[in-house]
Amino acid sequence: MTIDDITRALVRKRAKYLCEYCHPSDYEDADIEDLMKKLHDFWQDFIKNDFLAIEKIINTNTENIINKDVSPSS
Questions:
Q1: pLDDT of 4 above 80
Q2: pTM to 2 decimals?
Q3: Alpha-carbon span 35 to 12, nearest angstrom
Q4: Helix, strand, coil % (nearest 5) of the chain?
Q5: Number of folded domains in the chain?
């Protein structure tokens, strides 16, 4: 599984979550503050969980990628 695969999976998970979390009926006669809170909570959760997971994967693999790029080919 590559970093791209993991990122795509996390984005799909987030998109599904957002679709389930904010229904179109929420926008009809909606309280703007309530909608803004839902969006705030969504992005806050993304930053705390998925973004940090992606960053950790990238940081973990950076050394391997650098070593692979600079090592002499066999």
A1: no
A2: 0.41
A3: 21
A4: 85, 0, 15
A5: 1
